[in-house]
Specification:
Largest sheet: 6 strands, parallel
Strand order of the largest sheet: 2-1-3-4-8-9
Order of helices and strands: HEHEHEHEHEEHHEEHEHH
Strand content: 15-25%
Number of strands: 9
Shape: globular
Number of helices: 10
C-alpha cells in the first residue's frame, strides 16, 4: 500500500537520480567529423603523434591543441578557439591535467562526446587537489621541481613515474620537449561539468604513477563513462595508441579501426 512516507521517499530517490549523469550507453552519440586532442602537464601537442594517424585513417579531421600551461582560463580558451573552427560533431579528448579543460570546454554545442585518458575529471566547483588527497599520493608528485613560478618533472621522475613503460630512449626525447607549467594553472577550478550532460569515455591506466588508478576509476564511475582499463603508465596514448585510438573512434561513432 502506498503511504505518504513511501511516496515521499520515492520522490526523493527520483530527484537524486535526476542529478546523476546519464549512462553513455543510454545516450545517442552522433557520428563525429572531428577530434580535438588536448595535452596535459609535462608534455606538448606532439604527445598524440601515435594516436593521430589512426584517427586520420578513419577519415576524421584531427587537431592537437598546444596547451599554453599558463592559467586555467587561458588553457580553456586555447581549446575553445580550436573547437570554434570545427564544423559539425566533434569529440573532445583530454589527457592528464587537460581533463579539466575537457570538463570545462566540453559544453560547446559542437562537442558530441568527451574522452578522458588517465585524466582529471572534477565536478563543477570541486577542489581537485582535495579530491586527490583522499587517495594515496602517486610517486610522480614528489618529482615536480620549480624554477620560480615554472614547474616541470625531474628526469628521474619523468622516466620512472610518467613514462615508465616506454623505451628509455623515447622517454628521454619526451622529457627533453616537456613544456613547463605555471603554478597559477593549478589553482583553477571548473565552473561546469560537461560530463554530466555529454556522453563520456574513460581510459584508466592501471600502472599509473602520476594519477592514482583508483582515483581514475572513481572519476570514471562517477560520470557513468564507458570505461576501459589499459595496462599502461600515465602515457598510455604513446605506449598503447591502438587502444586509445579505438576508444576515441568509438566515441566518434566510427567502427574501431586497426590501421
Amino acid at each position: 500500500m502506498m503511504t505518504r512516507r513511501t511516496l515521499n521517499g520515492g520522490l526523493a530517490a527520483a530527484a537524486s537520480l535526476a542529478l546523476l549523469p546519464k549512462s553513455t550507453t543510454a545516450q545517442a552519440i552522433p557520428q563525429a567529423r572531428n577530434v580535438v586532442l588536448v595535452h596535459g602537464l609535462f608534455a606538448d601537442g606532439s604527445c598524440w603523434s601515435e594516436v593521430i594517424p589512426r584517427l586520420k585513417a578513419a577519415g576524421l579531421d584531427v587537431t592537437s591543441v598546444q596547451n599554453p600551461l599558463t592559467t586555467f582560463e587561458e588553457a580553456v580558451a586555447s581549446a575553445r578557439r580550436v573547437l570554434a573552427r570545427a564544423e559539425g560533431p566533434t569529440v573532445l579528448v583530454g589527457h592528464s591535467f587537460s581533463g579539466m579543460i575537457v570538463t570545462e570546454a566540453g559544453g560547446d554545442p559542437n562537442v558530441s562526446a568527451l574522452v578522458y585518458v588517465a585524466a582529471r575529471a572534477p565536478d563543477a566547483g570541486e577542489d581537485y587537489a582535495a579530491l586527490a588527497k583522499t587517495y594515496p599520493a602517486p610517486p610522480a608528485s614528489a618529482g615536480i621541481v620549480f624554477d620560480g613560478d615554472e614547474g616541470r618533472l625531474s628526469e628521474a621522475a619523468f622516466l620512472k613515474d610518467f613514462a615508465g613503460d616506454l623505451p628509455p630512449e623515447k622517454a628521454k626525447v619526451l622529457f627533453a620537449v616537456q613544456q613547463p607549467f605555471h603554478k597559477t594553472l593549478l589553482t583553477g577550478k571548473v565552473t561546469q561539468a560537461a560530463w554530466r550532460s555529454t556522453p563520456s569515455f574513460y581510459a584508466v591506466s592501471t600502472e599509473d604513477r602520476t594519477i592514482n588508478p583508483d582515483l581514475e576509476r572513481f572519476m570514471a564511475k562517477r560520470m557513468n563513462a564507458r570505461t576501459i582499463e589499459v595496462k599502461a603508465s600515465h602515457l598510455s596514448l604513446i605506449s598503447h595508441p591502438r587502444e586509445i585510438a579505438d576508444l576515441i573512434l568509438e566515441a566518434a561513432g566510427h567502427p574501431a579501426g586497426r590501421p
